[in-house]
Design goal:
2 copies of one chain form a homodimer.
Chain A: H1 3-19, E1 27-33, H2 37-47, E2 51-56, E3 60-65, E4 68-73, H3 75-78, E5 93-97, E6 99-103, H4 106-118, E7 125-128, E8 134-139, E9 145-149
Parallel strand pairs in A: 1-4, 6-9
Antiparallel strand pairs in A: 2-3, 3-4, 7-8, 8-9
C-alpha cells in the first residue's frame, strides 16, 4: 500500500470534519418588535405575568421564558445599530405582525381564556389541531399574533 | 364573628384566583419571515443542519430546535390568513430583519465561525459581553440577524 494514500485520505477527511458542525440544539433568544414599549410591558409583564430580566427605556424589555429569553424591541431604535464599539450588535428590526407560541397544558389553556377575556383581550381563534392539541390565538397591543398551545401539537408524549 | 364575613371573603377570593394564571413557563414556537423558502431551506437545513419537521411549498418550512419549533414563513402567504374553517389560523407576517439567537458552547462557537466562513456566510460581529459570554452574529439570506451565544450570557452556571 502506498503511504501517500493515507496522506490523501487524511487531507480529504480534515475539511469534511471542519464542515460538520453540530446542528444548533436549542434556542437562546427570540424577538418580537413593538412600537410602544410601555404598552408592551403592561401586556407581557402585567397580563401574561412574564418575569422581566432587562430593560432599557425606549429601546427594549427582555423576559425569561424557561431556558429562552424573549426580547421585545422598538425597531426604530434597533435599526440604528449599536454605537458601542465594544458591543457592536448589528442592526435589526421588523414591522408587521410577528408570531410566538407559548407552551400550555389543557388546564392552563382554560385559565388563559378566562384571564385574557377578563383583561379585555379578545380570543381571535380557539380550535383543536388534527392530532387533538388545542391552540388559542390572541394579539399583543402592537398586533403580533400570540398563541398558547399544548406541546403535544409538536412533541408526542408531552 | 359574623359568619357572613367568611362568605364575603370567599367571594372576594374567587375572582382573584381566576385572574392569577400561571405565567407561561416555556416557548413552544417562534417565527422568522423569509421571502424565498427554497433559499431558506438551503440555509437553515443545509448550512445550519436543522431538523426539518414540516413543509408546505411556497408557504412554510418548520424546524425542530430542542423543545422549540422554529417556523419560517413567506409573509405574502401567511398575511392572507387561513381558508380552512376547521383550522382558522389568524393572519400574521412581518417584513424587515428579525432576530434569533441559538445556544452554543465555546467549542461550538469556534466550529461555527469556521463552518459559516467556509459556506461563504460573513461573520458580521464577534465579541464578548461584559459577563464574558461570547456571541457571533451573521445573517440568513433574507437579512434576518442570527446569533450563536453561550447560554451563560443569560443563565449563570450554564
Amino acid at each position: 500500500m502506498d503511504p501517500r494514500d493515507d496522506t490523501r485520505s487524511a487531507r480529504a477527511i480534515i475539511p469534511l470534519m471542519a464542515q460538520q458542525s453540530t446542528p444548533p440544539a436549542a434556542l437562546l433568544e427570540t424577538a418580537l418588535y413593538v412600537s410602544d414599549l410601555a404598552e408592551a410591558e403592561a401586556f407581557y409583564g402585567g397580563i401574561l405575568g412574564l418575569e422581566q430580566i432587562a430593560r432599557v427605556p425606549d429601546r427594549h424589555v427582555f423576559y425569561r421564558l424557561g431556558e429562552v429569553v424573549l426580547l421585545l424591541f422598538d425597531p426604530a431604535r434597533t435599526l440604528e445599530g449599536s454605537s458601542n464599539l465594544d458591543l457592536p450588535v448589528p442592526p435589526h428590526g421588523a414591522t408587521g405582525q410577528g408570531h410566538l407560541c407559548f407552551s400550555a397544558t389543557a388546564a392552563e389553556l382554560h385559565a388563559w381564556v378566562d384571564r385574557l377575556t377578563e383583561a379585555g383581550i379578545p380570543i381571535e381563534a380557539d380550535f383543536h389541531w388534527p392530532n387533538g392539541a388545542r391552540s388559542i390565538y390572541f394579539r399583543d397591543l402592537a398586533g403580533n399574533s400570540l398563541e398558547f398551545a399544548e406541546p403535544r401539537l409538536w412533541f408526542e408524549g408531552s
